[in-house]
């Protein structure tokens, strides 16, 4: 894989774009300050990994039940907002705008880069295969950012309430001076789906790097989106399309469990990765402080190789995570082959196709267990099958950021899961369907934009 460096002029453009210049793409320039014009310019914007592939939202993982902090590590947290997020406080859970770790800023930084590319392609009347590919990439990146955001800052999709629930601020062009408006959850999901459906017709089957989205990336994001919406027939359709392109699973029997990062990577991208994105490395998630909950760790039987590949025992016998599919320290949030097999399994269960569901889960798990030790599932009851499926989602997608949205949709569907943490002797609880599952938007964003805050 090759990361492309932005030219100096494009760095300047993005800096001005994010600083709030009006219609920056229309500004005439000199040799030191010029706007992106060529196809190479627009591809370079999308190949800038620091803007496009990193700093996806960590809010959900910080808030979910996969890890805990000791009192000492909690008390030593540098940012009060991290402490408040960890204990599910209703407000002031974000860092100041445009500071390191401002997840709203990180999200819209990526969105505005996509808008600059899409607008620039149109303004410069670029056509042809290369232009179509670039536009398809920008649409996919934009959809990925909006999906990331709506799962963090809005209620989970509920058909009965989605038209009234507050969703994301939708921005379609690089003009920062247009007033911000929060669209509904329904409108936000429609926007995400529209971007992805457009992208499918524009993207090639493969790209030179998995940091560039291809058709299977767009199909995978569609499958994930429809799954969270509870539209299982559509989710199944697009998950099936993914494995027409990407279906190779890593055999964990061939990995070295003593390695710091056992899962293989090619130029920093995990080999099961379909679309490479990693989340912001929030302080509470640091490997030196985040301890895996015993309840989660004990879900892995001895012969499940993920217990060896995903975790390491600390000197104090607590457990830390080491098994990122990125092949390094970054926690992958992008689409992986393993996630697609889980989506295929769940959708087939939901549609009462239990034989097909059994086949898909077995295809995944036989690659995760010690040879000859795995006993294949034969689902005969949908309720039991779903219980197994969600246990396997927790185990396979640990530290991937999916658990928060899974908790939201499970509680939407009646699971009645209450989260609990004890800090300095005080017990904090998050009941099912609590308003705090839609994390508070940064207060300075509310002040500057005038958009409504999430109900508390």
UniProtKB/TrEMBL annotation:
Residues 25-227 form the SusD-like N-terminal domain. Its main location: membrane. The keyword Signal applies. It holds the Pfam family SusD-like_3. TPR repeats lie at residues 216-249. Residues 331-413 form the RagB/SusD domain. Keywords: Cell outer membrane, Membrane, Signal, TPR repeat. InterPro entries: SusD-like_N, SusD_RagB_dom, TPR-like_helical_dom_sf, TPR_rpt. Belongs to the SusD family. This is RagB/SusD family nutrient uptake outer membrane protein. It comes from Polluticaenibacter yanchengensis.
């Amino acid at each position: 894989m090759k990361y492309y460096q932005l030219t100096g002029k494009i760095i300047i453009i993005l800096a001005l774009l994010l600083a709030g210049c009006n219609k920056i793409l229309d500004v005439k320039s000199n040799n030191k300050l010029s706007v992106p014009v060529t196809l190479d310019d627009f591809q370079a914007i999308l190949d800038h990994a620091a803007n496009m592939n990193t700093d996806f939202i960590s809010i959900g993982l910080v808030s979910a039940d996969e890890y805990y902090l000791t009192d000492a590590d909690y008390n030593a947290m540098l940012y009060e907002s991290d402490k408040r997020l960890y204990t599910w406080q209703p407000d002031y859970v974000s860092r100041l705008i445009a500071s390191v770790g401002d997840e709203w800023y990180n999200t819209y930084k990526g969105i505005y880069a996509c808008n600059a590319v899409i607008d620039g392609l149109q303004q410069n009347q670029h056509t042809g295969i290369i232009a179509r590919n670039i536009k398809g990439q920008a649409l996919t990146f934009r959809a990925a950012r909006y999906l990331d955001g709506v799962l963090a800052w809005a209620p989970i999709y509920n058909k009965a309430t989605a038209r009234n629930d507050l969703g994301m601020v939708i921005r379609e062009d690089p003009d920062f001076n247009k007033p911000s408006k929060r669209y509904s959850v329904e409108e936000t999901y429609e926007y995400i789906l529209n971007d992805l459906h457009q992208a499918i017709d524009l993207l090639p089957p493969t790209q030179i790097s998995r940091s560039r989205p291809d058709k299977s990336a767009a199909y995978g994001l569609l499958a994930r989106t429809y799954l969270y919406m509870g539209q299982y027939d559509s989710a199944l359709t697009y998950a099936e399309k993914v494995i027409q392109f990407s279906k190779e699973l890593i055999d964990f029997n061939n990995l070295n469990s003593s390695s710091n990062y056992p899962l293989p990577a090619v130029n920093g991208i995990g080999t099961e990765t379909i679309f490479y994105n990693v989340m912001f490395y929030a302080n509470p998630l640091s490997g030196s402080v985040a301890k895996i909950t015993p309840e989660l760790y004990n879900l892995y039987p001895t012969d499940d190789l993920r217990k060896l590949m995903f975790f390491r025992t600390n000197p104090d016998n607590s457990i830390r995570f080491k098994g990122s599919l990125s092949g390094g320290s970054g926690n992958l949030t992008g689409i992986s082959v393993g996630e697609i097999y889980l989506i295929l399994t769940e959708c087939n269960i939901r549609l009462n196709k239990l034989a097909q569901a059994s086949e898909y889960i077995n295809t995944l798990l036989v690659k995760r267990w010690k040879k000859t030790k795995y006993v294949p599932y034969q689902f005969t009851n949908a309720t039991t099958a779903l219980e197994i499926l969600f246990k396997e989602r927790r185990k396979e997608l640990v530290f991937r950021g999916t658990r928060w949205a899974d908790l939201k949709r499970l509680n939407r569907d009646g699971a009645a899961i209450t989260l609990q943490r004890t800090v300095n002797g005080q017990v904090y609880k998050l009941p099912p369907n609590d308003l705090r599952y839609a994390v508070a938007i940064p207060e300075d964003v509310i002040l500057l934009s005038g958009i409504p805050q999430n109900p508390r």
